[in-house]
Amino acid sequence: MKKTQNVLIKGTKDGLTLHLDDQCSYEKLKMELNEKLTENQRVNEDHPLISVSVKIGNRFLTDVQQEEIKTIIRQKKNLVVGSIDSNVIAKSDAEQMMRENEIVSVARIIRSGQVLEVPGDLLLIGDVNPGGKVVAGGNIFIMGALKGIAHAGANGNSNAVISASLMMPTQLRINDAISRSPDITGDEEKREMECAYIDHTDQIIIDRLQALMHLRPNLTRLEGGF
Amino acid sequence: MGEAIVVTSGKGGVGKTTTSANIGTALALQGKKVCLVDTDIGLRNLDVVMGLENRIIYDLVDVVEGRCKIHQALVKDKRFEDLLYLLPAAQTSDKSAVNPEQMKVLMESLKQEYDYIIIDCPAGIEQGYKNAVAGADRAIVVTTPEVSAVRDADRIIGLLEKEENVAPPKLVINRIRSHMMKSGDMLDVDEITTHLSIELIGIVADDDEVIRASNHGEPIALNPNSRASIAYRNIARRILGESVPLQPLDEVDTGVFSKLKKFFGVK
């Protein structure tokens, strides 16, 4: 009794693609994958490693299951798993993704000793006073005076930017980079409408706000044109 | 039913006690029944500034622990006809002798009898601060035109804004030296108010008379001729809901020479 195959192997110029059926049971899939890979195995020590991308359609695999699949594939010589692609993700991951892409607006003054943390972008309508701190997973936009500490891209996003209507921070942090205000504050020139970003030398640069549209075009999220 | 107003600052030495004493006195001068409460347990000095040290029999800790009735601990100010009282802090215990719950109960019972209860808060943001704020309905934050004091005021305002029972705090800027503000060596009033962004309820100029009066146990607010006294009386009127314009900071110069200078536009 032979029915349609649950595991399809296709060769592309980038390596192998494994299409795993999303209707059969997981146990069955594992068994069949194992068999398929064993029968196809050509022991050829000279061949370079082949990268395999796994497509699992509408099946959801837990971290443990993903690891199991990876182990099965890895056991076969010169195969490495490049990626596992699924059409579905867990609700919690989706929510996390949403939160990280969301702009959270807050209307308050962040005073000395207070810390405001958001997972995504932060739009602060108010000031950050000295001793106060704002932390965001994404970008930070402050419609007020930034006099405290701002930390953008806190989860490892070097592309994050910080902008403020009045840029007089004690410290700026983007991802791992830190810059502090100069010790000798010269004549207090108005630092209005400025932004901070990391350049290619991993330094935090402060520039006019308008520079951002060229440096970080992906800040524009408007679909289509006008 | 009265109102409890806590006077606080975060930083020490900016004039919380002096401000408490004078606002209390000024409110009593307006005919309100006022009770001053010193919550700086272990380091009391509101009694000294008010000149009532020698009349203390019982204190706040005695009341809270039930060793006496409230009215036994209250020290009456003889200068006022039954309008101004002081509940002194204990000098022999420390801040942990009282907890915020007990303070709330105490404030509730005082509010039954007095129009205003002025709570003098200790410096810092620990137990003593928490006790002082527990029973308060309103808050006055005192700062001086110094960066460190403003920084601490900012911190304390942040904490006060978290208190649900306390109305948005009001600001008093104390010890203003107009010549230093003018020369830019001191933060000016506008700078401080924009930075802290809370409502300003009074400014008090630095005045040697204040120190002299405090040392004699006579709050400056009793002296009608001093600038500081007028400033405190104005604060009291603003607390009562009157709208009183801020005093100009420049020294009132009435000499003929300065008038002439003014006339010719020489500064």
What does this 3D model show about the protein?
- Chain A is built from four helices and 15 strands.
- Chain A starts with 6 loop residues before the first strand and ends in an 11-residue tail after the last helix.
- Chain A has two domains: 7-85, 2-Layer Sandwich (Transcription Regulator spoIIAA); 94-215, Pectate Lyase C-like.
- In chain A, 19% of the residues lie in helices and 35% in strands.
- Chain B is of the alpha/beta class and 267 residues long.
- Chain B has one domain (3-263): Rossmann fold, CATH 3.40.50.300.
- In chain B, 41% of the residues lie in helices and 16% in strands.
- Chain B has helices spanning 16-29, 46-50, 60-64, 70-73, 100-113, 127-134, 147-162, 178-183, 189-196, 208-215, 227-239, 256-263, and strands at 3-8, 34-38, 75-76, 84-87, 116-120, 138-143, 170-176, 199-205.
- An eight-stranded mixed β-sheet of chain B has the order 3-4-2-5-1-6-7-8, sandwiched between helices.
- In chain B, helix 7 (147-162) links the parallel strand 6 and strand 7 (170-176).
- In chain B, helix 1 (16-29) crosses helix 11 (227-239) and helix 5 packs parallel to helix 6 (127-134).
- Chain B is globular.
- At the A-B interface, loops of A face helix 7 of B.
Question: Low-confidence spans of chain B: pLDDT under 50, at least 5 residues?
Answer: none
| Percentage of residues in helical conformation of chain B | 40-55%
Nearest-integer average pLDDT of chain B = 91
The major pleated sheet of chain A works out as: 6 strands, mixed
Side by side, the strands of the main sheet of chain A go 5-7-9-11-14-15
Proportion in β-strands of chain A: 25-35%
Shape of chain B: globular
Distance between the termini of chain B: 52 Å
Quaternary status = heterodimer
Radius of gyration of chain A: 25 Å
Note the main sheet of chain B: 8 strands, mixed
- Spans where pLDDT lies below 50 across 5 or more residues of chain A: none
CATH level 4 superfamily of chain B: P-loop containing nucleotide triphosphate hydrolases
Number of helical segments of chain B? 12
Give me the strand/helix succession of chain B: EHEHHHEEHEHEHEHHEHHH
CATH-defined architecture of chain B: 3-Layer(aba) Sandwich
Q: Please give the number of β-strands of chain B.
A: 8
- The percentage of residues in β strands of chain B lies in 15-25%
Which of globular, elongated, flat, extended, rod-shaped describes the shape of chain A? elongated
Subunit structure (chain A): Interacts with MinD and FtsZ.
Domain Septum site-determining protein MinC N-terminal (chain A): 7-84
Domain Septum formation inhibitor MinC C-terminal (chain A): 106-206
Family (chain A): Belongs to the MinC family.
